[in-house]
Amino acid sequence: MTAFTVTLVLVAAAVGLLRWRRPAWYWLTFGVTLAVVRVLVRYGSVMEACGLTVPPARWRLALARAINRPLPESRSPRILRLRPTRTGLVLRLKLRPGQDAFDIAAASDRLRHSFSMYGVASRELRSGVVEVRMTGYDVLKRVQMPGETDPRPMRVPVALRQDGSVHYRDYRAIPHALTLGATESGKSVYQRNLVAGLAPMDVALVGIDCKQGVELFPLARRFSALADDPDTAAEVLDALVVRMERNYQLIRAQQRITADVPDAEIAADIWDLTADLRPVPVVVLVDEVAELALYANKEEERRRDRIITSLVRLAQLGRAAGIYLEICGQRFGSELGKGITMLRAQLTGRTAHRVNDETSANMAFGDIAPDAVLAAIQIPAETRGLAIAGDSSGGWHRIRAPHTSLRQAVNICNRHAHRTPDLPELAPYRHALSTLADAPLPPAKPSPATA
Ligand SMILES: Nc1ncnc2c1ncn2[C@@H]1O[C@H](COP(=O)(O)OP(=O)(O)OP(=O)(O)O)[C@@H](O)[C@H]1O
Ligand SMILES: [Mg+2]
To answer: Which atom of ligand 1 is nearest to the CA of 189?
Structure first.
């Protein structure tokens, strides 16, 4: 008896420890079974308590009265499917007449407490069917990406969402994106994850890193061109505009429009070209974009205008030519001068890490998802890397990228260095790695200030 009690106490302690230190393992071993049992046992009473039931149909009441049976009870949404996942449970519910998806969404916090889950979110799948995703623990505390993701060309699994699903950066769906955040909030780590995800793909990477290249230059072997100061950045962007124009000429040459070519076969972007003709797509990563927009004298102002004009042109026309922008910065608003808000309007994908004030959050979401602004300001300073990701559809998610160290990213880039395409327009800006190690320290530059 004593041995049994001791074993029981030891197992309970082990389970408690697992739950505290390794919630993901706890979930996979015990948590998931307990949660399934809890949801199935409590389902009816929880739905009733949360106000998610409807009275029985009139014909049922009439029938019960006619045959003198007890009156039927109120009905909850029917469970179509209950699927355990790596991080939680997914319930698919068939709504009863008179219910809508908003009822479930409005009750999600009540459901979360009633089922003792960490998070509950819902979305409509089709008319009358709602998916409720529950997470068993805080999946963003220690991000572990699932082993299997759904790989597609130009789609990078970059972070985990709060509901346990994978957040993809899909360049073909959302060509250009803006990532904002205060200093030390996790922008560069997010961008590093993107580079690590893009490295194994057939894509050219171009980096502009005005922090003297500290973030992107270690990854140089996978980059087709790199710029570490605004002068080089202006030249690289000009070269990209030339490349864009050449790509359009190529697409024009391949269109071969005659009366008998069906509309669907007329090439309008690089993805419509055959694989042997298709120019390699280019992702342009800009870290600390504000550095490109600051100037101290007339000459720097001219350079700034040239840079912003090229960026705006790439943002407006680059998509069909396979040129995608990924811009990171601490702030990106009209105080950086003319052309900035025009550029921002073209950056459909928005991600905001922790920001210190509402105006910074407004720069990311003010024009697309006002409630995401509040969520961005509420990100706690100690959870670096936590971010709000939205898009122009108005939807947003809380996401966090895995903590990829610079060493890991360098290893991935070196492993895929042979994939680095040589773009003729950008050849002068390709960084030979040997020069990185031997390069003398650059002379100290006076720091630019806003004019
Ligand atoms: N997803 C993450 N998970 C865990 N830790 C993170 C994550 N992202 C960032 N961090 C931590 O935050 C630190 C700062 O991140 P990062 O360099 O990306 O910030 P930043 O926003 O680029 O700052 P700056 O504007 O100063 O360049 C990192 O060194 C890392 O320790
Ligand atoms: Mg940074």
So the answer is: 18
The answer on 105 and 53 residing in a single domain is: yes
Total number of residues shown for the chain: 451
Q: Cα separation of 101 and 58, whole Å?
A: 23
Are 119 and 241 part of one and the same domain? no
CB 291 within 8 A of CB 210: yes
> Does residue 149 belong to any structural domain of this protein?
no
Query: Does residue 438 surpass a pLDDT of 50?
Result: no
Of 281, 283, 286, the C-alpha closest to 332 is 286
401 falls within a domain: yes
Whole-angstrom Cα distance, residue 402 to residue 190? Answer: 8
Residue nearest to atom 17 of ligand 1 (CA): 188
Task: Find the CATH number of the domain harbouring 208.
Answer: 3.40.50.300
What is the mean pLDDT of the segment spanning 126-153? 88
Q: Per the structure block, which two tokens stand in for 252?
A: 């024009």
Compute the distance from residue 330 Cα to the ligand 2 centre, in Å.
9
Instruction: Say which residue the tokens 């009905």 belong to.
Output: 75
Confidence of residue 446 (pLDDT cuts 50, 70, 90): low
Secondary-structure percent of the chain, ordered helix, strand, coil, rounded to 5: 45, 20, 35
Give the position of tokens 């697992």. Answer: 18
Residues 161 and 51 in one domain: no
- Which residue, 81, 100, 135, sits at the end of a domain? 135
| Domain region containing 113 | 2-135
Of 212, 172, 214, the C-alpha closest to 191 is 214
Contact 419, 222 (CB under 8 A): yes
Q: Is 405 exposed, middle or buried (0-12, 13-18, 19+ CB in 10 A)?
A: exposed
Nearest to 231 by CA among 325, 299, 178: 299
Question: In whole angstroms, what is the distance from residue 377 CA to residue 321 CA?
Answer: 36
Is 186 among the annotated ligand-binding positions? Answer: yes
Q: What pTM was estimated for this model as a whole? A: 0.84
Same domain, 121 and 180: no
Residues 120 and 170 in one domain: no
Q: What is the number of alpha carbons within 13 Å of residue 432 lying toward its C-beta? A: 5
pLDDT at 22: 85
106 belongs to a structural domain = yes
pLDDT for 450 beyond 60: no
**SS3 state of residue 122:** strand
* CA–CA gap between residue 387 and residue 25 (Å, rounded): 25
Among 139, 161, 167, 185, residue to substitute to test ligand 1 (most atoms within 8 Å of Cβ): 185
